[in-house]
Amino acid sequence: MKRVLLSVFITLVALLAVGWPPKARVDRPLAGLPLVNPSGPMEVALSLPFVVPNDLRQKMKVGGFTDVSWTLSGFTARSLAETMPTKPRDQSGRWKVVHIADLPPPGRDDLLKVFVARMSEVKPDLILASGDLGYGNTAADFDRITTFFKDLERQGALVVACPGNHERKAWIQYLRHFGPDTWHRVDFGPFTILSLDSEHGRDQFTPAQFAWFKRELANTPDRTVLVQLHHPVFPSDTAARGEAKGSGGILGARRGEFIQLCKDAKVAAVLSGHWHSDAVFDGDGRLRDDTWDFPGTKFIVTTTLGNEIRRVTRWPKAYFGYHTLVFLDGKLLSYTADLDGDGKPDPIASEPLLRSRYEVTGAFPVIPLRPLTPDNQRNDRVISPQPHSNAGGR
């Protein structure tokens, strides 16, 4: 009897030594923050049996997760579909979706603070983050980005992310922070968001991922479908292949079939980043700098939120920014900014992150906007922000 008790005591001590303080890893659903997704159960691994951290308990409450099935290693919980909102906060049928990509690198948290402040004004329902989330290779940098997403969550937005090419430099950290499913579906309000991993096999989809995409796309009756991936779908010019003038390429294999599937399914928008430059294409691959209001799927490339700025196409404007897509009853009303203030959206234009030459949040001065000139367009036409002592820019 004493040996049994001793064994139990040693086991408990070992568990506490390994698992304390209590931690949780959410393996499913990969639905951003908060954890809201009625399409499947939530699967959680715990560092200590039956001990759920308080922050996860709160997210479960927000997401309506109930009906918990316990195991020694964690639990599975299910979410009631009726807990999902059917209308946005103002009950008007109007929804706002903000798209970002290529986030500020380490040392540029001032830009993250500006974006969080801006979102408190915009009040989006969804924020889609399409890869290259932090440009850092350490756990601390991924902690920095998840903290940024939590700041956005507190304002009421659901954040849904997918990986880019830079995440491969710290792939284990990405999987630990964002879960093992690098492509996934999230149903929220009238939307189905299909997030893809375009880095597999060098700027392309694996056969398994593409088969999954086709199945999910076929199962979206009466829903507004948004697709996000990191790499742009079309080349920057008339070339069949290209590296976007040094910015790193486009979607590779299965591109033609992917485009046709999006057309046939009447996907509202395909959102990507990677170029650090704004662009919008129609379903035939034409750069639509003539009008924002054209029929069919919009293939939108969003400039960087805070890394080096590039000029990739003939579109002349370049700055840190994000796109805001406005929907009414599931239909896309607008997705580009009115830069000249004439009351009409400008083709291609994203919303500038910085409203003036300097924008200050607390003690964090933000780098200035720099106009495009022949000097800063030379070579690969990268505009390198000037570092300053308080922000640690690079």
Can you tell me about this structure?
The protein is an alpha/beta fold and 394 residues long. It folds into two domains: 21-83, no CATH class; 94-352, Metallo-dependent phosphatases (Purple Acid Phosphatase, chain A, domain 2), CATH 3.60.21. The chain is built from seven helices and 20 strands. The chain has helices at residues 2-19, 54-63, 109-122, 139-153, 171-178, 207-217, 255-264; strands at residues 24-28, 42-46, 65-71, 74-79, 94-100, 126-130, 158-162, 184-188, 191-195, 224-228, 269-272, 279-281, 298-301, 309-310, 321-328, 331-334, 351-352, 360-361, 364-365, 382-383. The strands form five sheets. Strands 5, 6, 7, 15, 16 and 17 form a six-stranded mixed β-sheet that branches. A six-stranded mixed β-sheet has the order 8-9-10-11-13-12, covered by helices on one side. Strands 1-2-4-3 form a four-stranded antiparallel β-sheet. Strand 5 (94-100), helix 3 and strand 6 form a beta-alpha-beta unit. Mean pLDDT is 79; it is low at 33-38, 80-87 and 357-394.
Q: What fraction of the residues are assigned to beta strands by DSSP?
A: 15-25%
**Average of per-residue pLDDT values:** 79
Q: Give the helices and strands as they follow along the chain.
A: HEEHEEEHEHEHEEHEHEEEEEEEEEE
First-residue to last-residue Cα separation: 64 Å
CATH topology of the largest domain: Purple Acid Phosphatase, chain A, domain 2
Give the tally of β-strands.
20
Shape: globular
Biggest sheet overview:
6 strands, mixed
Uncertain segments: 33-38, 80-87, 357-394
Specify the CATH architecture of the largest domain.
Answer: 4-Layer Sandwich
Helix and strand composition category: alpha/beta
CATH superfamily of the largest domain, called what?
Answer: Metallo-dependent phosphatases
Number of domains: 2
Q: Which CATH class of the largest domain applies here? A: Alpha Beta
Radius of gyration: 22 Å
Query: Can you give the helix content as a percent range?
Result: 10-25%
Number of helices: 7
